[in-house]
Each structure stands twice: as C-alpha cells, then as structure tokens.
C-alpha cells in the first residue's frame, strides 16, 4: 500500500508560459487519455451523421425542419463535452465528498418521474418534461451516482488502509444504496435502464474485490428472481412474448417481432459497404422504429455496411480498452471502481443496444452511448468520460 | 506493462479487472461475428427482403392487338369504355377509409353503396367474394359501364371525389364485320389464374394479375403477340405504403395486330350457307331412321390451295364471342359448355372428327396404285361383295360392271375398293399376318397426313385416326376388359360385336380392311385434314400446315412478321397417277356423283373437282361430306347426321364458289360480283396512328 495520496495535479507553474504549461510533462493535456477522447468524439461524429440520415425526412417528427434533430444532437454533444471538462476540472476525488448530495438529488429526480410530473414515452414513465421540447431522463444520471456512491462506500476502508477487501457490511451498505434507485427504475418500468444499473452493480462489485460469494450470490439471486417472476405468472404472456420475440419474431409478429425483423433486414441488406449515407431504403422508408435513438445502429448497418458498423464496434472497443487500462492503472480502489463501473455501463449498454438490433438480445429501450440522439444519455456518457479522464489524470505518472 | 505504475492494487482486483476486460472483448467479438453473419454471409438474402419491402408496382396494361381479316377489317379489336376506378391508397388516407367518398360515388353511378364498398375491399381469408384480389396499389375498377355524363360529373368535381378516376379504357370487342362472327376461330379471353402467373414468372413476358389471357382460338395461339407487354412502374414506398419515389419504369409495349387470311365476307357467307344447309337438312326425311335428319353440327373450311391459308372456317353450332367480354356469367357459361347446346365452343373444323366415307377414296386409290394395281385396269363394280358369308353392299346397291379406278372414284364404287382391300389383306397374310405386312392402305393414309395434327395455328386440334394394326392392338388392350364383360355370343348386336371384339379385336380382320377402304369403320378425320389433303391434290402434292395467321404487325405498323406457309409432307403420288386422280375428281363434278350439283358451272374457265362422301355411323344418321377444289381454293364441308354429301352439303359449297368467282345463275362469270377470284396476297397497311388501310 504505497498509494499516491496527496498528489496534486493542478499545480501552479508561473515559470512557464501558457503553451509550456499545457505541454509540461505533468500537465493536464499530457495526462488526458487522448485515445479515449478521440474515440468518444469519433462516435459522436458518426452519431451525428446517422441522426441526420434518420431524421432529415421525418417531417412528422421535425415539424418541417430537417436540421431539428441534428442541430440538437450537436448541441447535446457540445454540452456533454463541456460537462466532461467540468468533471475533470472538479475531479472524481472532489466529487467523492459530495456523493451523498448527488445521490440524494438523483434519487429525488427518479422518484419525481413516478409522480404526476413524469412523462410516459413508449410505455415507460421515464422522462421529466422540462418544457420547450426538452425532456430529461433521470435514470441516465442515476448510473453515475450509483457508480460514485458504491465506489465511495466500497473503497472507503480499503483506501484508508484498514482492510484489503470490502467487508460484508460495506457490501450490504453499497447494495442497499444501489437498490433504491434500481427499484424505482423497475417500477417505471424502464427495463433497459434497470438492466444497465444491474450490470453496473455487478461490475462495481467485481472490481471492488468483494468476496466471490457476493458476486455469485448476486448473479444467482438475479437469475432465480427472474425465473420466479416468469414461473409464478407475474407477467402477462404478452410481456414474456415481447421479451422473447427477438429470438422468435413469431411470438409478437406485429410488434417487437416485426421491428426486430425489419432491423435485421436493414442491417443485413447493408452488405459489406452499405448503401451510402441517406440511401438506405429501410431507413428512408421508416421500416425500423426509433431509428434516431434506440435503433440507430441499423442506420449504420444499412447505409455504411459492415465497414461502417464495424468501425463503431471498433471505436467502442478502443474506448472500453482505454477505460479498462484506466481502471487497472488507478492509484486507489475508488478510482478503479469508478472506472470499472463505467466500463460495465458502456460495455453492457452497447452490447444490449447493438445486440437487440442484431437480434441476439431482447428489445429494451436503451440508447447507444455517444451515437444515439438524446440529451440525457449524451450528457451522462460524457460525464462518465470525464470521470475516466479524472481517474487517469490523478494517478501518479509513470516513473 | 512498463508504463503502468505500481498502484498497490490487490491481486484479486487485478485478476477481476482482467476478467472484465476479457468479458468485454468477447461481447464485442460476439457483436462483430453476428454483424458479419448478417451482412456478409446473408447480406444478399436480406438485400432481397429489403427490396421486396419497399417497392410496389403499378401496372399499365398493354392494349391488346387486333385480329384483322385479310382486308384489314377487325374481327377482334378493342372498344373504349369509361372505367371508374378507386385508388385504395388514397382512400385509406381518409379518416373513414373513404366510406363517404364511395357512398357519394355510388349515388352518382346509380349503384348500391354496399356494392361499391365490396368492389374495393381486399380479398383475404376472411373476406367473401366479391373483393379485389389484385394489387392494393392498383386502381380498382368499380364499373366499366359509366356513361359520359357520370364520368364528367366525377372529373369535374375532383375535390369531391379524391382518389376516384373516370378514364376511358380498352375492352375487347368482337365486331363481326360483314356479319362474320368467326367465333370458334377467334376464341376468347378470360382472366389469368394464379398458376399461370407463377408459371410465367421467369419468362420474358411475365403475366400480371390484371391480364386477360387467350383461352381458345387465335386469341390463345397468338396470345403472346397480341398481349404485348404491360408498362410497369415501381415506386419506392415507406412502411405505411406512402410513395417516396420512383424506382424503375419499364414502358409498356402495345400488343401487335394479327392479320389473318380470313376474308370476313367469305367467312360470313360460309357461316350463313352452313347454317342454311343444316336447316334444310332438318327438313329432309331419313328413310333409315324414319325421322328427319338431325343435322346437329357441321363445319366448312375454305382454304387457299397453294398455301394452306384459311380463307373461311365456319363451325356450327355458333355462339357470340362477345358473351365472354367483361366476364362471363354462370348461366351463359353453362349454356356455352352444355350438352343441350351441343358444345358450341368446339371448332368442328379442327376439333370435330368423324368417318370420312367416300371422300377418303383418293387415299385408297393412291394406295392401290402404289401397291401395284393399274389405275387404268379393269375392276369389277358389282352391287355387292361378300367375304365368308358377310355381304358388303355397294352404295344403294348400284353396279357399273368393269371400270377403271378413275371411274370408280367418279361413281364412288365401293365394291371396287372392297375387292382391292380384301386382296391386299390376303397378300399381307390375312388372319395370320406376315411379320412385315405391306399395309399399303394404312401406310398411304399416314403419308396423306392422316391420324396426326395438320399443324394449324389453332389450339387443341384433334388427330383423327387411322385404324391400322398398331391402333387395333392398343385399342383392344385398352378395351378388352369391358368388351369381354359385356360380350355375349348370342346377345343383341352390340353384345355380339363386343363378344367378337373380345376374342379377336386385336387382329385386323377382313371386314376391318374392307370397311376402311371406303373411309368407314374406325376411320376418323377432321374437316381441316380433308381440306389439307384435297389442297395438296390441287396444288401438285404439297401438304401445307393450314394457317389462319398471315402476319404479325406491330401496333405502329412498322414491324411486319410474315407467317410463311410451311409444308409437313408430300403426297406419295407420281405425276401420272396424280393427273389421273385429278381428272377423275373433275369427272365427279361433271359426270359423277356431284355433277347434278354443278350443272351450269363454267368448268372450262374454272375447273371444278369434287368428291362426295356419305359416311355411316353406327346408331346415328349418315355424315354428309363434300370435298372440292379449284386451282385457287379447296372447300370441304361436313354435316353430322345431315344426309348425303351431294345432297346436304353441295349447295352450300357451290354458293361459296359462286360468290368467290362471281359465277352467276346462268353459268356466266361477273367479275364485279366476284368476292375473291384470286387469293389475297397483299397485307392491309397499318399506319403509325393505328389506322388500317385495305390492301
């Protein structure tokens, strides 16, 4: 335990000019993970093009302005990058101190969604209407607060040097903290977000070094709980069918089955190099639902082909690889857990989102990080990138 | 990992982080693999599915070509009717699915709103007929009998009738120029079936659901030429069926016109004379049956002798081909296909077959000469001829003493042919046939093209039958069980025949050979076969495939494809015998069995040749046959249960000749009255705007 406590990055170096300060060996610029940055920016750029293609003809949604979505998408991305910068500036360590406040705030926000103030979209009461055409999806921010909250609780005694691993009491505390917002999200019902939050909890627990029993127990509890819900008939048949329709479209031929089939046709028909941006017949014909948000990957598949869709996978891969590196390189367990939580989040959400368009995962309403249209998601993922950068920047430099 | 600093992390955490990394990598590889599977491995299949998803076709049917007679008169063409159609796509955009508009439309058209609604609903498993089974993107016809006033009302109040169009559209019409219905020759159209669409799918000219297809006659044999190619516009549509662009446009090609060798004036005359002859025959008393002749059906073929082109082809009973236009109703269909009306759809000239009787004798005469008998030899024409106790009588038991084969043809002496046939049967081994019998009489019939199709350009021609040894064997095999069951040695006539057939039906018996020699027994021919054969005798020996189509001319008149006469054989006749037979057949018309029907005929100017036939049919009245030819034409006529050849058929045939050449009552020739003294060689001209000029 030779943790680099008290190592401060933001140093005042008056002897150097601006350029010198920016390029100094220990400067922030040098400490930023540029590959992570670039892959995030590239994904957002591809996303902008795809949102443009998916919405330029949708006068039913845009009210006649073909730039409606793409403009907002660009604004969201810019704001997201600003939020990232702010997060780096503040630093994840500073945030550690205000985690209870952030957690409480996010809990209030998600709870508000269930109140009459919430807005229902696609059967989920998951949005807050801010007026002016802006809605916010608090569950996105819950992902951050759960990561920070659990990291704070689980790492506290380890980072203090009291223990090597989180003890049972700590784990119970952390799980309890995570359970409240997850329960609310399930009640919305926002199945997609609930699944991502669960994946985050699992990732965080794994990275914290908590006992294997906790990890396995949690997985077992999840699986048997789901089995119990189905076998006790707590769900209507149509709900089960809708869930399973990704594998067998005949179970829900008019709804999910139709959509997944159309999504598969869109992607498959793209072939190796795609039909060209804006040229996809499935996209222009609006055969796939929610194409600027949850099913945006189908636009890439159809119009950019295996090359373009593969590039998205590659960029996500680069991002996750950097995030894993950051997790392993973090100077303390808090940083490791934060980074690993983000890895679990991004990895699961991307896999579920792309997997459902490819017909290997059940359909759940989830955006593709950085690519899908949507402010809350865009802000949240860039804040998460900010957390990763902060973890990276605040560890000791290699010797 | 030199640039990863010492973090003091526990091994467990490091191992878990590596585990997470591996898990993440495998998830991404899974997605990549699946992506490869969908896009690379199965990309083509999905591309096809995507193409089917978003393209809808709108079809503009091609105008069907006309069928013209040799002078350009339309035997079949199209008339313009005002068709009111509804666009389902437009109706479905309305809040009430177009109900209000359709109700209003029903008011204008004087129809029940319900009827209109039923026309535009789509057929599916739960929808009873009437319903629309075509493409929902196709304008759906509501009526094709709109008046100009109704059409105007709809067109002038466009905003009142969104999605409704009133357009003139082509409907088939059989105009019967000069009163020539030509029904069985033209045939008819009916809507295409699903199987036909499927079958034609991969061909050059796929069928469309809206297509009508030729079912019989020329409409069927020249269907692909007449039909043309429909124009197909493919539209890209979105999920809701809204058109978002044009994908492909394939312009239509209007159907070509078929010029036939039919002369509608001659055709009308043939139809009229045939009907008249049958009517007259029904007033004649038949001594054998003790009733008037039934004259239930008949046919007349007028053919160009030198080409095999058909100038007229009449078949009775007749029907009105317009019955088929715009869909046939059940009652009419039943009538047209029923026994009571004696199957008027059948073309008796190509699909009616019966024993030829004595008009078969040129075949037997040729056979005898080829077998070595001298044409000019002396043959006994006795009143009867008996074989083993069985007596074969000459027609009306006449006797002419010793005559040559030419005279035998002229007076149609059966007993001369009995003797010859019996002799040949004996030469071939009689009841114990040689291994390779000569079978001159049967071989010659085949050489005359009998027992097979003539190859006329009409569908479903029948072959007739040459009852040779092979046929006897096959026929016996097929029927012996029934014969042996029915046959009784001492039963009534049919039972005795069955008994005999059961025992020895597989063998050629003397009686079979003898009956066959005068075109009786199991021999069957069609009028078109007889016309082809007599045409060959007239033209020097060439058996032409009879043709009705003369040329296929594109709609704008620019492309002309002549249908040239094609031969399928030569008569097995040497020059001398041919000339002798030709002489004898002229003798039939001047001093033989048909002479009384050609009194006053200008034989020196228009040499007439003829042969009469009166075929006996068991259980029925005699079939009247009359076969004739001049240098230009061959005319063959038959009336089933009509009486004798010269008695029942000859006046009609003579009337047609009179008209063709302009022969007057007193035997003079009035060129002004002649309809067609020489066959029409030229084609009518079709100008680019579709106007037709007579040649």
Note down, in words, how this protein is organized:
The complex is a heterodimer of chains A (399) and B (695). Chain A has 399 residues and is mainly alpha-helical. Chain A has one domain. Chain A has helices spanning 18-23, 28-31, 34-55, 59-62, 68-90, 92-114, 138-159, 168-187, 191-208, 212-231, 237-244, 256-270, 281-284, 296-329, 333-358, 375-393, and strands spanning 118-121, 124-131, 134-136. Chain A has a three-stranded antiparallel β-sheet, covered by helices on one side. In chain A, a hairpin with a 2-residue loop joins strand 1 (118-121) and strand 2. In chain A, helix 3 packs antiparallel against helix 14 and helix 8 (168-187) runs antiparallel to helix 9 (191-208). Chain A is globular. With 695 residues, chain B is of the alpha+beta class. Among the domains of chain B are: 56-260, Alpha-Beta Complex (Penicillin-binding protein 2a (Domain 2)); 358-517, 3-Layer(aba) Sandwich (Beta-lactamase), CATH 3.40.710. Chain B contains 23 helices and 27 strands. In chain B, strands 2, 3, 4, 5, 10, 20 and 21 form a seven-stranded mixed β-sheet that branches. Chain B has a five-stranded antiparallel β-sheet with strand order 14-13-25-24-23, sandwiched between helices. In chain B, helix 14 crosses helix 17 (440-447), helix 16 (414-427) packs across helix 20 (510-517) and helix 18 (469-486) packs across helix 19. The longest helix of chain B is centred in the first third of the chain and has 31 residues, at 11-41. Chain B starts with 10 loop residues before the first helix and ends with a strand. Chains A and B meet through helix 9, helix 12, helix 13, helix 14 and helix 15 of A and helix 1 and helix 2 of B. Chain A: It is an enzyme of class 2 (transferase). Chain A: Keywords: Cell shape, Membrane, Transmembrane, Transmembrane helix. Chain A: This is peptidoglycan glycosyltransferase. Chain A: It is a multi-pass membrane protein. Chain A: Pathway: Cell wall biogenesis; peptidoglycan biosynthesis.
């Amino acid at each position: 335990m030779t943790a680099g406590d008290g190592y401060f990055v933001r140093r005042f170096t008056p002897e150097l000019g601006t350029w010198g300060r920016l390029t100094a060996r220990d400067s922030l610029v040098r400490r930023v993970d540029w590959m992570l940055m670039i892959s995030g920016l590239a994904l957002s750029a591809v996303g902008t093009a795809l949102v443009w293609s998916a919405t330029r003809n949708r006068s039913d949604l845009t009210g006649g302005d073909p730039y409606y979505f793409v403009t907002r998408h660009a604004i969201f991305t810019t704001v997201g990058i600003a939020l990232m910068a702010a997060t780096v500036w503040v630093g994840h360590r500073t945030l550690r101190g205000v985690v209870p406040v952030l957690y409480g705030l996010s809990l209030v926000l998600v709870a508000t969604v269930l109140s009459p103030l919430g807005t229902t979209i696609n059967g989920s009461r998951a949005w807050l209407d801010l007026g002016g055409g802006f809605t916010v999806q608090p569950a996105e921010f819950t992902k951050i607060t759960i990561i920070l909250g659990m990291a704070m609780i689980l790492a506290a005694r380890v980072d203090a040097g009291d223990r090597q691993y989180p003890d049972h009491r700590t784990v119970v505390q952390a799980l309890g903290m995570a359970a409240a917002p997850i329960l609310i999200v399930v009640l919305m019902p926002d199945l997609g977000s609930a699944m991502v939050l669960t994946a985050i909890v699992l990732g965080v627990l794994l990275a914290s070094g908590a006992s294997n029993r906790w990890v396995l127990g949690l997985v077992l509890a999840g699986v048997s709980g789901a089995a119990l819900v189905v076998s006790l008939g707590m769900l209507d048949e149509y709900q089960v069918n809708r869930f399973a329709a990704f594998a067998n479209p005949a179970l829900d031929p008019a709804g999910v089955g139709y959509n997944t089939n159309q999504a598969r046709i869109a992607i498959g028909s793209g072939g190796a190099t795609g039909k060209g941006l804006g040229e996809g017949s499935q996209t222009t014909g609006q055969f796939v639902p929610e194409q600027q948000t949850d099913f945006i990957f189908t636009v890439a598949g159809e119009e950019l082909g295996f090359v373009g869709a593969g590039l998205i996978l590659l960029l996500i891969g680069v991002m996750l690889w950097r995030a894993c590196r950051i997790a392993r390189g973090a100077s303390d367990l808090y940083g490791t857990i934060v980074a690993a939580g983000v890895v679990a989040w991004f990895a699961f959400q991307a896999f579920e989102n792309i997997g459902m368009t490819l017909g290997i995962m059940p359909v759940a309403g989830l955006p593709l990080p950085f690519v899908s249209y949507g402010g809350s998601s865009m802000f949240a993922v860039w804040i998460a990138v900010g957390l990763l950068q902060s973890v990276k920047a605040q560890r000791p430099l290699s010797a | 990992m030199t640039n990863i600093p010492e973090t003091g992390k526990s091994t467990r955490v490091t191992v878990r982080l590596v585990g997470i990394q591996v898990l993440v990598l495998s998830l991404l590889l899974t997605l990549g693999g699946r992506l490869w599977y969908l896009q690379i491995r199965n990309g083509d299949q999905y591309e096809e599915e995507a193409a089917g998803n978003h393209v809808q076709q709108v079809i503009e049917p091609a105008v069907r070509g006309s069928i013209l007679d040799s002078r350009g008169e339309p035997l079949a063409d199209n008339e313009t009717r005002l068709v009111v159609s509804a666009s389902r796509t437009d109706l479905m955009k309305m809040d009430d699915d177009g109900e209000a508009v359709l109700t209003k439309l029903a008011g204008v058209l004087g129809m029940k709103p319900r009827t209109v609604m039923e026309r535009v609903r789509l057929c599916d498993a739960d929808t009873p007929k009437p319903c629309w089974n075509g493409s929902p993107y196709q304008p759906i016809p509501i009526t094709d009998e709109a008046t100009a006033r109704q059409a105007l009302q709809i067109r002038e109040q466009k905003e009142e009738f969104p999605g409704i169009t009133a357009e003139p559209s082509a409907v088939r019409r059989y105009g019967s120029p000069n009163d020539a219905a030509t029904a069985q020759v033209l045939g008819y159209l009916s809507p295409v079936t699903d199987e036909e669409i499927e079958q034609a799918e991969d061909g050059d000219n796929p069928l469309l659901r809206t297509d009508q297809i030729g079912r019989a006659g020329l409409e069927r044999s020249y269907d692909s030429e007449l039909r043309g190619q429909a124009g197909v516009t493919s539209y890209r549509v979105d999920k809701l069926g809204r058109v978002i662009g044009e994908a492909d446009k394939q312009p239509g090609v209007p159907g070509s016109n078929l010029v036939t060798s039919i002369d509608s004036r001659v055709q009308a005359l043939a139809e009229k004379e045939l009907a008249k002859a049958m009517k007259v025959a029904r007033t004649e008393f038949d001594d054998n049956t003790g009733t008037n002749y039934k004259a239930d059906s008949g046919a007349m073929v007028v053919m160009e002798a030198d080409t095999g082109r058909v100038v007229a082809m009449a078949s009775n009973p007749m029907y009105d081909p317009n019955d088929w236009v715009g869909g046939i109703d059940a009652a009419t269909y039943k009538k047209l296909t029923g026994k009571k009306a004696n199957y008027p759809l059948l073309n008796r000239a190509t699909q009616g077959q019966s024993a030829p009787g004595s008009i078969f004798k040129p075949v037997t005469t040729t056979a005898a000469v080829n077998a070595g008998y001298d044409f000019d030899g002396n043959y006994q024409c006795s009143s009867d001829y008996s074989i083993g106790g069985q007596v074969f009588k000459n027609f009306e038991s006449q006797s002419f003493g010793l005559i040559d084969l030419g005279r035998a043809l002229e007076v149609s002496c059966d007993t001369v042919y009995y003797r010859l046939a019996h002799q040949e049967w004996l030469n071939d081994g009689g009841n114990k046939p040689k291994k390779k019998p000569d079978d001159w009489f049967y071989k010659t019939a085949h050489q005359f093209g009998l027992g097979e199709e003539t190859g006329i350009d009409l569908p479903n021609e029948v072959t007739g039958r040459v009852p040779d040894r092979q046929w006897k064997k096959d026929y016996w095999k097929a029927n012996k069980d029934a014969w042996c069951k029915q046959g009784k040695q001492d039963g009534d006539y049919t039972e005795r025949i069955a008994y005999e057939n059961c025992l020895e039906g597989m063998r050629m018996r003397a009686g079979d050979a003898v009956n066959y020699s005068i075109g009786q027994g199991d021999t069957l021919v069609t009028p078109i076969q007889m016309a082809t054969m007599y045409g060959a005798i007239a033209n020097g020996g060439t058996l032409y495939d009879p043709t009705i189509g003369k040329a296929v001319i594109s709609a704008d008149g620019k492309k002309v494809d002549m249908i040239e006469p094609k031969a399928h054989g030569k008569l097995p006749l040497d020059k001398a015998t041919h000339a002798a037979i030709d002489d004898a057949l002229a003798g039939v018309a001047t001093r033989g069995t048909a002479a009384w029907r050609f009194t006053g005929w200008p034989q020196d100017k228009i040499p007439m040749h003829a042969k009469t036939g009166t075929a006996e049919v068991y259980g029925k009245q005699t079939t009247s046959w009359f076969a004739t030819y001049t240098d230009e034409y061959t005319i063959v006529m038959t009336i089933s249960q009509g009486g004798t050849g010269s008695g029942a058929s000859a006046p009609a045939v003579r009337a047609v000749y009179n008209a063709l050449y302009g022969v007057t009552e007193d035997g003079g020739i009035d060129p002004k009255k002649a309809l067609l003294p020489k066959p029409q060689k030229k084609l009518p001209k079709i100008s680019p705007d579709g106007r037709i000029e007579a040649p």
